[in-house]
Design goal:
Elements lengths: L2 E3 L17 H11 L8 E3 L5 H4 L5 H9 L4 H7 L5 H24 L1 E4 L20 H11 L6 E5 L6 H7 L5 E8 L12 E5 L5 H18 L3 E5 L17 H17 L4 E4 L9 H18 L1
Parallel strand pairs: 1-2, 1-3, 3-8, 4-5, 4-7, 5-6, 7-8
Length: about 300
Amino acid sequence: MDVFYSDHYTLPLPPTNRFPMAKYRMLRDYLIDQSVIDAGQLKASPLASPEQLRLAHTGDYIEAMRDGTVATEIIKRIGFPWSPELYVRSCATVGGAIAAAKSALRDGIAGNLAGGTHHSHADRGEGYCVFNDIAVAARYLVKHRLAARIAVIDLDVHQGNGNSSILHDDPNMFIFSMHGEKNYPFVKVPSHLDIALTEGADDDLFLSELERGMKAVGDFNPDYIFYQMGVDPLKEDTLGKMNLTFDGLIRRDECVLSFAHERNVPLSLALGGGYAKPIELSVEAYANTYRAVNRIYS
């Protein structure tokens, strides 16, 4: 399994910015130090080109992000100050998703230690998301006739409004989002299947509803899956408002991964959200997904 990383592209964030940017490098180090993966599996993410970004984004938005003329309102909604590094890092996130998708077609599964930027719309970003890696990579597969029926399984605690605003009307896509009913974004963009959970949802409720969602994915019969594996449903997450345990998240991952493995459907992992305090808990939860990959795909 190839695992793509882009944490060597850093952002000059002010001390007041609350986003835990260090988690990306922490996760890469943890996966190696704990022998979850070996160093030979790691690949530096390539940069997505403007042409590739245009598969899901308007040319005006791409150029504005590249040259710094993006509207102040959009930058505020994204939550990061504009910098040249922000554009490059965001291109690496998308490039990693495309590379992981192509690798998964060969090996059955691949990972991107970034991405899941599902709040980015065609003409704007928001919620720490600049460009939508899954939307670009999904349309890349379709354009190059590498996949015909693509499912997005989005289990981040926040609804994937950007995935839905970009991909909902594509006839070869099925978007399943399971998320917090009263969590961000407060105005949802309908997916093909949305399952909204109440605050405080626990392992049993989450897994029961996941079973219903996976049945719908099975009915769609995809030949490729993007799995947004956000770990912010963890009870210690500062933005999650759910009560999942490590065990619940592991069982969630095993459900999705077993589904793909048993049906021989290629799957790529997108990191998604994780904002626990301490952040090491999110890193551990992310790593557990890769541990589940090792058990199921060995």
